Amino acid sequence: MLGIVAAVLLFIAFLINAADISTNDVFTSTNVMLIGLALLALHVAGIGSGWAARGRRR
């Protein structure tokens, strides 16, 4: 789930940067990109994946 959100945020950051849209200081393309990269790092670390790595019962 976090990977999908990260991909959407990175795409929004790309659109803001490519279209040269002027935004306020909070939603600059760099800030949105950094939030997306942080979510991607959390996804790669296994946080928010939704599946728990548990041993099998016999």
Describe this structure in a few short sentences.
The chain is mainly α and 58 residues long. Helix content is 59%, strand content 0%.
Unreliable sequence segments: none
Describe the sheet with the most strands. Answer: none
Q: What is the overall pLDDT average?
A: 80
Bin the strand percentage. Answer: under 5%
Distance between the termini: 30 Å
Instruction: Evaluate the radius of gyration.
Output: 16 Å
Structural class: mainly alpha
Measured as a percent range, the helix fraction is 55-70%
Could you say how many structural domains there are in total? 1
Count helical runs: 2
Spatial shape: elongated
Number of strands: 0
Order of helices and strands: HH
Transmembrane segments: 34-53
Keywords: Membrane, Transmembrane, Transmembrane helix
Structure description:
- The chain crosses the membrane at residues 34-53.
- Keywords: Membrane, Transmembrane, Transmembrane helix.
- This protein has 58 residues and is mainly α.
- It has one domain.
- Helices cover 59% and strands 0% of the residues.
- It has helices spanning 2-18, 29-45.
- The protein is elongated, with a radius of gyration of 16 Å.
- The chain starts with a helix and ends in a 13-residue tail after the last helix.
Task: List strands and helices in order, with pairings.
Blueprint: H1 2-18, H2 29-45
Structure keywords:
58 residues; mainly alpha
